Hints:
This protein is mainly alpha-helical.
Amino acid sequence: MTTEINSVELATDLTIAWLSNPNTRTSADDVPAFLQSMYAAVEKLGGSPAAEAPEQDTQEYVPAVTVRKSLAGRDHIISLIDGKPYRTLRRHLTSNGLTPEEYRARYNLKPDYPMVAESYSEARRAMAKSIGLGRKAGHKVEQAAEGVATKAKRGGKAALDAAKEALGTND
């Protein structure tokens, strides 16, 4: 049994099947053109993958600035694509059709090459800490319980108010 496909026969069979469909309306002049396009499609699908492998992009990219200069400022990172400063490179890379990994590979950068300027990263970190991101889930409850415990030593109304404050209720 051979695994080779006869492209002419397959294209002919597909064309006959298409023409035998009652919904197909075509003139006799269009049949040879359809047969040729069907044959080309079958050849393309049946062709050897090694022969039709797309050529790899062997273009060597020259960076607009040196890597050292791109990281020289704390307030920005200079793009190696166009030499312009950015606080974060992610949107710039997306507009150029690249991911951070592709960008690093294109310019032979280390895997830890930053995509965000140092000062911008510090500002985002400070903002995240101020709103409570990164804390453990029960951290706030533990602090409130400690506050209630210290005020409970005094007893009475102070302990009751501290408990209401910790629970977030003001009845």
